[in-house]
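Can't paste images in this forum, so I'm doing it all in text. The chain is below; anyone willing to post the predicted structure tokens underneath?
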Amino acid sequence: MRGGTAYKIGWGLHEIDIPPRGFAMHGYGQPAHQGSAQQTPLHARALYIEDTEGKALWFCCLDLGYVTHAMREGVCAQLRVQAGDGFDEARLVLTCTHTHSGPGGCSHDVLYNLVTPGFQPEHLARVVVAACAALRVAQTTAVPADLDLHQGVLGEEIPVAWNRSLAAYNRNPDVIPQPPTQTQRALDRTMSVLAVRQGGQANALLSLFGVHATCLSSRLHRHDGDNKGYAARHAETALVNAGNEHPVAIFAQATAGDVSPHEQGPGAYGRRMALKGEAEYRYARENGERQSRFALGLLDLPPVMSLHGRTDAILTYVDFANVRADPAYANGEHEAFTSEPCHGVAFFAGTPVDGPGMPGLLVAGAKQIARRVKSRRMGRLHGYSQSRREYIERLYAAQGAKDILMESGRKYILGRPFDKLPLPGFADQLVGELKRQVRAGAVRQSAMVPTVLPLQIVTLGKLAILCCPGEFTTIAGRRVRDTVRARLQASGIEQVLICTYCNDYMGYVTTYEEYQQQAYEGGHTIYGQWTLAAFQTHFARLAEQLTRPASARTHDQVTRPTPAPDHELALRSNLQPR
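Text version of the structure:
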């Protein structure tokens, strides 16, 4: 459709102006990983896409490690003022690059703020300001433009991405198992690029390709966009040199959950430890520029699809602590339930190359204690009250192979309530911070992590994009994408893409088979072994609703997360680093 443009499109960016003042950065969970300087600016980058009926999609990507419900609520509130009564929150996609070298403290939930320490209202406010400013520029500068989808497969020789959890990946029956020397094959190497053009010239782009933004380690102390940030800066410079005055290049995430920017396999840890200091920044830039050059190269090739037609969007919130998965997605199991969130020992152990956690001896000890707690509880079931018995049975049936270190819903660690932890605060800084907040009464009613999560699908003509919270592994993302494609094909959708880290953050989503490995990703799949099946169940239902006229849709548009109590939030706000 080149006889006339299908959309009005605008693009904009704005710096996320959070001065580094010694607070711990979000990503590695290390209190010593403090931001004391800035290596590169962090930005909010935005697209505004309006169809011929005046219906628009708003897309914003932040150079941050996560998106939280508090961020999304703040942006929605401002957009309701900015755009008027016509603003539909289902049409806003808020995502991030997942850099581990950006500021944190932007959640109303407890766990991911512990390291900062606590909730930092000024950080949140500045994120909202930057996102809304970028979106405002995009909306007010929207002009008739063409939108094309380009796709290509990064060759295995391009050193950008490797699977960091190969043993778990190889458990999947729907993959070709790979040896430890071929981890670059165990991921989705397809990059999808949406290109905005005027007069045949590219003005803005959105790249979707999954690889962790963990080129930079927790040993560094500067805010930085990591590989995705460098990719955006490189592409924008190239577009300026091509004659564009104010281009915007967004490099967002697809299935990055088990994908590392560091070469995995034999000798991986030694190679990673040899990369230090300024060499890490150079490596992040090189990795990002490889992504950028590939994306720009795709723009010189014919698109796989020129987009036109109406835009649409659908959004719902689901309580993932209490989902019964459809047997079709749960290996035929009719009693496939999720449970209240739990973090496994494997979560606290970290990833061997990208971000090591607890020392091995502590990991081994924690596993033994977790197993003894489970054995003791299961052996005493008949002595418990009915509600206690039902909780324990549901918890261990859902969590399966996980050695549970933290029951994040009930606020227990290794079978003990938070306020009865035997480990002294001086032994571990995070334990000390948790104890401080528990003593202050700041976590009695507040959630440790989100459980009510946003699921979203947006469409542009014959293209659908799944917008998923958290981190999906390669095969988990493929399965949920296939699930939605099967539901939408009859309504004319020809391509289904996935964008992760959207609208909130709660951890990982692995396949059932990967979960049994209990690598880091499985330990951080907090609702248990049927988490992916739960996502497939609800995305399938949401996709079915999307095929109906808007007036005939009956999906839940009311459920939202329970706000943190104001008095508890105040007690853990504006805390200072120790």
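Residues 137 and 143 are 12 Å apart (CA to CA). The first strand starts at residue 7 and ends at 15.
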